[in-house]
Structure formats: structure tokens, C-alpha cells
Amino acid sequence: MTEKLTVVNPYSLETIGSVEMSGWGLIDRYLNEAHSLFRDRSSWLPAHQRIDILKRAADMMQDRFDDLAYLIANEGGKPLVDARVEVTRAIDGMGLCVHEIAQMVGKEIPMDLMAAGAGRIAFTQREPIGVVVAASAFNHPLNLIVHQVGPAVATGCPVIVKPAGDTPLSCRTFVDILYEAGLPESWCRFVACDNQTAEKMITDERVAFLSFIGSARVGWMLKSKLAPGARCALEHGGVAPVIVDESADIDAMIPSLAKGGFYHSGQVCVSVQRVFAPNAIARKVAEKLAIAASDLQVGNAIDETVDCGPLIRPAEVDRVEEWVAEAVDAGATVMTGGKRLGDTTYAPTVLLDPPAHVRVSTQEVFGPVVCVYGYDTFDAAVEQANSLPFAFQAAVFTKNLDTAMSAVQNLDATAVMVNDHTAFRVDWMPFAGRRQSGYNTGGIGYTMHDMTQDKMAVIKVG
Fold first, then answer.
1. pLDDT tens-place string over residues 216-261
2. Would you state the pLDDT for residue 193?
3. What confidence tens digit (pLDDT) does each residue in 12-33 have?
4. What pairing do the DSSP bridges indicate for beta strands 108-109 and 120-128?
5. How far apart are CA 185 and CA 190, in angstroms?
6. CA atoms within a 13 Å half-sphere pointing along the CA-CB vector of 302
7. 372: closest CA among 272, 298, 291?
8. Distance between CA atoms of residues 159 and 56, nearest Å
9. Among the listed residues 210, 96, 80, 89, the one whose alpha carbon sits nearest the alpha carbon of residue 143
């Protein structure tokens, strides 16, 4: 009998579905199949066929919009209002894949810059890199899959996708939609498997590219074990800093900070976590943010009235509770929250001045906790913001252009938002972590570039 992976609603812990687990025998067959497809150039799907498949799939996703949003909320705990935004993004992402197919172009390479190259014409073209394995995370169970699988289909790479164990239903649904849209099943395979089997698959010599979204510990470990020649993109997490300048409009800023900090209960890799404000206004900022946080409704994500859903597993509630208690014991002031609401939920929490050494100050909380710190000088705030081995997206709130540009130039981040929260993203922009926060660049077009490689032709004429 085939083993089943049971999927539960993370708030109620009630079973909502299941998927079949894939053993190594099946995955080995999928890898052989995918590798053979790639090696046989006569089997490659032409661009017009890939475009038609992606367009039809996007239309089907639009037709099933409400069902997809409900599934995201039900298995992933993301509130319906945000789940609907995720579906919209996923559909738009399919359109971006179609658009970027036309941008996969080469260029002419001048040959006669020296006499040795004279009499030759050279140009490049883009080719698919090979078999792609995509290992995904739970927090955006549809859109992350689109960002990993869509580019593989668009570039003509056979792909095997492993979803997060907590949220496989959205992924399986998307793969089924691709099949319905006309993609041959051999070009995209869904596998749910244990971690040991996943590692064996990812590090197999038939894999040309790994797309990984998850923890830094796992991501760097897998990168170190990839087969020779395999490429990868790793998206981990950050401990996102926000610097508030004394000129900032605090009242206008608070809704943005609250959204960036408590969206999906903080389970986002660029969630607002560390807010640095001048000593004279730090408590005021914390108080106003606490008021906004205390107004948020916590509960089952499938309830239309809920702003913050559950954490993905009860163990995550235990962990956040432990981290907050450590900070409070060390001297942090709880402005709001600071307690669990049940086995699966934790109250939106604002802490004032936790010590620099505690875990809420040094590691990614990945929960509904925002910390506010006072600072003496702007340069000191930048230094503290840059003090961790993680660097992803950062933000500054100010009315002063010089201050904004100083933050942009001096914050260690791949993107610095000015007068916006750290979790802002559109899917055509580069999205990447520095240092321990990631490797290579996400975003539909950037991922498609990484899944292709240049080939040059040099033609001797005359």
C-alpha cells in the first residue's frame, strides 16, 4: 500500500486531504525520464507550444480563482484576503513567464577586434540548462511553485517539484492544471517525499539546476552536496531591519509597518522584524505599532474576518513563545501580545528594546513579532542593522532625501525600500538574499536566465 502524506488545516489541525508519498524507485524513474527528455533534442517543446500551455494554464487558474485561494488559506494558514492576492500574483507570474520567453535572446559577438578574429561572425543563443529540481516552502504554496516551475516550463527544462510537506495540495493542483493545459506529464513531475529521499534526488548527477526555498541550514548543506556542474538558486530568510528617521511621518508609517510585520503572521522571509527609531520617539513608535497590532483579528485563515492566521505547526508556536520569553526575561518590554492564544496561534507582538544578544534580535523569528529599538545616531542604527550575517531587504522611513540616499548606500541589503515596508515585492523585480540569506537571484525573468545557458556559434566566412 502506498504511504500517504496527511495534510491538515494548521489552525484546527483537522485533516483536509492527502497526497501519495514518492519513494526512490519512482523518483529514480522520473529522473531518468527527465534526463532522457533533455538529452533528446528532438523531443524539446518549441517556444510556441510552451507559450500556449502557459497561457491556457493561467486561464484555468483564473477560472478556479476562489478554489485556489481557499486551498492556500486552508492548508497554509494564510488569511483569505492575502490568499486571493497570492492567486492573482501566481496568475500574473504565468504571464511574466510567457513574456520572458520572447526575451531569451542572444547577441552578436564582434570577432574582428583583433586580426586573429577577422573573417568570422559569432553570435550566442540561450539553451535550457537541463533537469531542474524545485524544492519549495510552505508560506506561499502556490506562488512559490509558479516562480520555480513556471520558469522551468518556459525555458524548456524538465522539472521535478517537491513541495513543502505542510502544503502539497496547492502544488499538486498547479501541476495538474499544467497537464490539463497540454504539458506532457514527463516534463513536470510532482513528488512528495521524506527529507532523506529529497536529498538523494537533489544531489543526483542527473540534476542540472536546484531551485531551493527554505532554511539557510538546509540550503547551504544541499549546495555543498550538489553534483559537479550543477547550478542552484537558494532563497533563505532575513532579519529585516527598518530605520525610522526623526523626520518620518509616524502616523502614516504605522499601517505599513504593521502590514510588513504581521502579514501571514510574520511567516515571510522579508517580514519587518527590527525597527530602529531615535531614542526620543522609539517608545511612541512602539506604542502606535502595538495599537495597530492589537486590532488584528487572529484565527482560522479560512474565516473572512481573520487578519492573522495560525503558525504553520504547533511547534512553531512553542518556539516563538520561548524566544519572546527569553527576550522579556532579558529586559525587553512587551507593548502588546507576548503570549500564545492557543496550540496553533500566537498573538501579534511588539517588543521594545530587547537586548542585542537574544534570539529575537539575532535570528529570523518567522512569527508575529516585531522589535523596536532606540538609537542615538543614524550611523549607529545602520551599523546595528548591518550587524547580522543575514542581509535581504531593508527599509527606511524619512522625509529627508539625503537620509534616504544614505540608507540606500549604506544598508547591507539587496533592496532598500524608502517609505515602505521590507516585505514589498513585485514579481518582475530581482529578489535575493546576500550572505547567509541566499544565493543567486529570484524573480521570474532572473530565474529563467539562470535556467538557461549561452551557446556561441563562430562562423568562418570567405
1. 999 999 999 999 999 999 999 999 999 999 999 999 999 999 999 9
2. 96
3. 999 999 999 999 999 999 999 9
4. antiparallel
5. 10
6. 16
7. 272
8. 19
9. 89
The type of residue at 460 is K
Q: How many CB atoms lie within 10 A of CB 228?
A: 5
Residue with cell 495540495: 169
Residues belonging to the chain? 462
The verdict on whether 304 is a catalytic residue reads: no
Cβ contacts of residue 328 below 8 Å, gap of 6+?
A: 334, 338, 351
The DSSP 8-state label assigned to residue 162 in this structure reads: E
Q: Give me the pLDDT at residue 1, please.
A: 62
Beta carbons of 450 and 441 less than 8 angstroms apart: yes
Q: How far apart are CA 281 and CA 273, in angstroms?
A: 18
Nearest-5° Cα angle at 215, 195 to 236: 135
**Which residue is catalytic, options 75, 86, 100, 235?**
235
What is the number of other CB atoms lying within 10 angstroms of the CB of residue 386?
14
Q: Which three cell numbers stand for residue 160?
A: 521535478
Burial (CB < 10 A; 0-12, 13-18, 19+), residue 281, is middle
Distance between CA atoms of 1 and 60, rounded to whole angstroms?
33
pLDDT score of 179:
98
Which residue is it, cell 492573522? 308
* Type of residue numbered 212: F
The dihedral over CA atoms of 312, 314, 316, 320, expressed in degrees to the nearest 10, equals: 130
Q: Is 232 a catalytic residue?
A: no
Catalytic residue among 193, 269, 308, 371: 269
Q: What's the rounded Cα separation, in Å, for the pair 146 and 153?
A: 10
| CA dist., res. 121 & res. 138, Å (int) | 49
CA–CA gap between residue 454 and residue 127 (Å, rounded): 6
- Contact (Cβ atoms closer than 8 angstroms) between residue 106 and residue 454: yes
Question: What gap in Å lies between CA 314 and CA 298, rounded to an integer?
Answer: 15
- pLDDT one-digit tens code per residue, 67-95: 999 999 999 999 999 999 999 999 999 99
